[in-house]
Amino acid sequence: MSASLEDPVLSALGVAHGFGRRGSSVPDETIFPRQVHGVAVLDAGAGGAPPGHVAADAVVSEKAGVSVGVVTADCVPILLASEGGGTVGAIHAGWRGLAAGVIEIGLAAMRARARGEEIYCAVGPSARGCCYEVDPPVRDGLLERHAGLLAEVLVPHAACHFQLDLALLACRVLEREGLAGGQIGTRHLECSICDPLRFESYRREGDAAGRMSHYITPSATTCHRG
Predict the structure, then answer these.
(1) What architecture is domain 8-216?
(2) Disulfide engineering: 165 pairs with which of 13, 33, 66, 129, CB 3.0-4.6 Å?
């Protein structure tokens, strides 16, 4: 079984986490939302309907040992943690979610629960500009919210088509929302379409594609950076 991919930015906080790849696993009873390419946030400790039945594309947790996660097959997985490690979250950001503001809303939910602590995050494997081709409706959806961020993210390609770098756009949105470069882990910005040996890809494999599961777990005790 393959090990999940860890990012040094989150590892420095002492937070257990992992970006999935083919054959990797997540902790038992990790809480996943029912992803719908929207902007709703699931609070894993709020009770109510079983988490897997809650439509959301971001999830947060403050319960020690209760892992949360998202699944992807080309969309961007983002794992987040407060500086002390007691609050964590995961965001699923495809182009629709990016256009609708899922990163901004998920980050706001983290900040609301982090009691003034800084937020750190890591961005995982996803579709990148080398392989991901989109059409004008996708361009138009992204222009409405992110017009100032699209240089080198959305590049004209063939007639009426563009190469889109989802991971680069996600990083730029996080920076625009106030995270400094040292707060954004980029160790695993691999293209999921390029690498069939390690990553699942809906764009490459269509309905036959599997899904990669990504997780993060709140710390039992706080851990402050030195």
Answers:
(1) 4-Layer Sandwich (3.60)
(2) 129
Beta bridge partners of 60: 43, 89
Residue 206 buriedness (CB in 10 A; 0-12 / 13-18 / 19+): exposed
Q: Amino acid identity of 31?
A: I
What pTM value is reported for the model? 0.94
Per the structure block, which two tokens stand in for 97? Answer: 């979610």
Domain boundaries in the chain?
Answer: 8-216
Q: Is the dihedral of CA 137, 129, 168, 216 positive or negative?
A: positive
First-to-last C-alpha distance (Å) of the chain: 34
Cα(70)–Cα(59) distance, integer angstroms: 8
Query: pLDDT tens digits for 134-185?
Result: 999 999 999 999 999 999 999 998 788 999 999 999 999 999 999 998 999 9
